[in-house]
Amino acid sequence: MSENKVIDGKDFAERLRGSIATLAAEFEAKAGRKAGLAVVLVGEDPASQVYVSSKGKQTVACGMASFEYKLPADADEATLLGMIEQLNADPAVDGILVQLPLPRHLDEQKVIATISPDKDVDGFHVTNAGRLAVGQAGYVPCTPLGCLMLLKDRLGDLSGMNAVVIGRSNIVGKPMAQLLLAESCTVTVAHSRTKDLPEVVRRADIVVAAVGRPEMVKADWIKPGATVIDVGINRLPPAEGKTKGRIVGDVDYQGAVQVAGAITPVPGGVGPMTIAVLLRNALVAAYDHIGAPLAA
Ligand code: NDP
């Protein structure tokens, strides 16, 4: 098996952060301040704490300012919305991200709707979802945008290719489908009600799996030579004597890598791209805020 089949998201993300650091330094020279990203964490979910700390470290490493706000798990809606309003009005803050999932008593849609669309670097606000749908410039959710970058880097022009996106969530599947459509792919969006999923996937030149089911996509679903992007992050139960289980994607990697033309591993594929793209979105927002938009 050729090593060249493996799409190395870790390496791509590192290069992306390098170019972000250069642009962030240029921004600081131009604006007289650093580009700023604010992250709000409600509660103490361990995975969310790891993400937030990693985002903060990478933001600073790229030469941007990181503002972290923590609220207790029982924080009320008015407190959280008030904090977002303050960040909306703060000229040092270019991007705002509220770490999801939120504790159950908080209304996620209401929270996202309160973030100013021009600081919504996660791209979850309906204004940005609408901009993506009608082909206007806006903020695109980081994970699917990272997937598109990996695909274009590997395949170049995607026009005319058959793409199958498995999953239709607002944060991955739907925006992924919109991005591929904008690249002139013929896009099929599959989900839990799709009939004969293996047969649907076999038609694909590009498969994006964003399901959340460990190793669901099998090698014999993949058309020989297809490019496979595995978004899934699933932790398997621990093996005997171990405390933590292995992380696997939504694709049976060991089998699929034999058939695919190119494939992202898990970990080390899509995962590392998400934060790098978030920083890129925050920098794009910063340049927009000083009236000097970055070229696309
Ligand atoms: P959601 O649970 O929101 O969506 C899952 C989608 O998969 C739904 O559309 C669902 O269909 C579909 N689905 C579920 N079961 C099946 C099935 N048997 N056959 C076909 N489709 C099915 O998940 P997310 O989109 O948020 O995340 C998907 C995966 O990506 C998760 O593993 C998550 O951890 C990972 N992820 C990784 C990120 C990264 O940085 N790499 C970032 C975000 C997510 P239906 O709509 O019909 O219910």
From TrEMBL:
Residues 7-122 form the Tetrahydrofolate dehydrogenase/cyclohydrolase catalytic domain. Keywords: Amino-acid biosynthesis, Histidine biosynthesis, Hydrolase, Methionine biosynthesis, Multifunctional enzyme, NADP, One-carbon metabolism, Oxidoreductase, Purine biosynthesis. GO terms for cellular component: cytosol. NADP(+) binds at residues 167-169, 233. GO terms for biological process: L-histidine biosynthetic process; methionine biosynthetic process; purine nucleotide biosynthetic process; tetrahydrofolate interconversion. It catalyses: (6R)-5,10-methylene-5,6,7,8-tetrahydrofolate + NADP(+) = (6R)-5,10-methenyltetrahydrofolate + NADPH; (6R)-5,10-methenyltetrahydrofolate + H2O = (6R)-10-formyltetrahydrofolate + H(+). Gene3D superfamilies: Leucine Dehydrogenase, chain A, domain 1, NAD(P)-binding Rossmann-like Domain. Signal peptide: none annotated. Pfam families: THF_DHG_CYH, THF_DHG_CYH_C. Pathway: One-carbon metabolism; tetrahydrofolate interconversion. Its EC number is 1.5.1.5, 3.5.4.9. GO terms for molecular function: methenyltetrahydrofolate cyclohydrolase activity; methylenetetrahydrofolate dehydrogenase (NADP+) activity. Residues 141-286 form the Tetrahydrofolate dehydrogenase/cyclohydrolase NAD(P)-binding domain. Catalyzes the oxidation of 5,10-methylenetetrahydrofolate to 5,10-methenyltetrahydrofolate and then the hydrolysis of 5,10-methenyltetrahydrofolate to 10-formyltetrahydrofolate. Homodimer. Belongs to the tetrahydrofolate dehydrogenase/cyclohydrolase family. This is Bifunctional protein FolD. It comes from Novosphingobium umbonatum.
